[in-house]
Amino acid sequence: MSNELIKSVQDLNEAVTHLRNSHEKKEQEAVFKIQTALDAYEQKNQDLLTRLATKDSEIKEIEEKLIAITSPANYNNANAEVKVEAKAYEDFLAGKNIVANIEKKYLRTDTFTSGGVFVPTVQLAGIIKNIVEVSNLRPFVKVRTMGAKAETMAVRTGTATANMTGEAQSAVDTQAKYGELRLEAKKMTAKYEISNEQIQDSENVVDLVAEMNAEIGEQFGYLEGAQFVNGSGAGNNILGFMQHPDIGFINSGDASAITFDSLIKVIGEIKTGYKPVYAFNRKTLSALRLLKDPTNRYIWESGNLGVDMPSNINGIPYVIMPDMPDIAANTFPIIFGDFSKIMVGDRKGITVIRNEMSLADEGIVRFVYHRRVGMVVTNPEAFKKNQNFKFIIYV
């Protein structure tokens, strides 16, 4: 036998041995998995058997008691309490109203004199609250810390222009124009008054001072969102982006609904270079989820949050802002724009003044809260509103 043939036979034997060992290992792993599953199943089976046995034991105990109290021999010798139970059982079997025929005397918690005094009420820690929806612009806008009450920045209001000229003709004045944009901090205020007794006596259940601080912080956040979206700009109010006079709009062509065509048209109103998103409230989102394109496909598409791909409308992300108007005639339920072109300024965070002196004779502590913040749209051309209206008119 040649060396090559011997080598081939050895290789074949080794391969068969390896295959046999591998097969046996897989069989052992499979048996182990099956055995583990059977063990788990059997444990559950035993638990079920235990529960059934306990239930049978309880049923037998009840049956023995019923037999005992209804037996004539035992009934004549039974005490008054047992006779009442037996009579109730007989009435139940006869279909009688056992509640009306039994004199009820027992301790109860819902009557003060019948035992309720022994069951004190306990107040659980914490406070049940409804949800407060806030239009949170801060993740999408530019935020800066203000060094003064008002800050200004230069803004170009008109661009330089170029013109075609002929030979020996004079150049035309094409100078750019500039203006000033003002970011001014406006003040939010809230006031709380609470008695010293209330602060002291509630400390075992809830820290009222901490609760008030959290409550005011939440309300300042709510007020900020409402001002940033719909503030009038008059007096002490911030000018919200929905009230900005330089932000234009298009009409949907429908008196009471947003149309697919208007959502497409508004995209073309924003210059290339901006990064716009849709913004609307959750009621409008519900309506948009039912809207379909001309091919009968839903325009709302679910994203893939695992790879940081948000849900979108027409391939464009959207932001939920509760303070946006609902869909109705002559309203602006949707705005399309680049929110990085909004600047928010924080002059001071929340400050608290705890005044224990002014109302000391009445035992009342007064808390006064302040917060100073401003907002300005730096590039109005980066936004366009979508209005519900009967006629398609572009402004």
How would you sum up this structure, described in words?
- With 395 residues, the chain is an alpha+beta fold.
- It folds into two domains: 19-70; 142-158 and 176-387, Major capsid protein gp5 fold (2-Layer Sandwich), CATH 3.30.2400.
- 35% of the residues lie in helices and 22% in strands.
- It has helices at residues 3-70, 72-77, 80-94, 98-101, 196-201, 208-230, 260-267, 282-288; strands at 142-145, 150-158, 177-184, 186-195, 248-251, 277-280, 300-301, 312-313, 316-320, 334-337, 342-355, 364-377, 383-387.
- Strand 11 and strand 12 (364-377) form a beta hairpin.
- It is extended, with a radius of gyration of 39 Å.
- It starts with a helix and ends in an 8-residue tail after the last strand.
- The model is unreliable at 390-395 (pLDDT under 50).
SSE string, helix = H, strand = E? HHHHEEEEHHEHEHEEEEEEE
Q: State the CATH superfamily name of the largest domain.
A: Major capsid protein gp5
For the record, give the distance between the C-alpha atoms at the N and C termini, rounded to a whole number.
Answer: 98 Å
Q: Estimate nothing, just give the exact number of structural domains.
A: 2
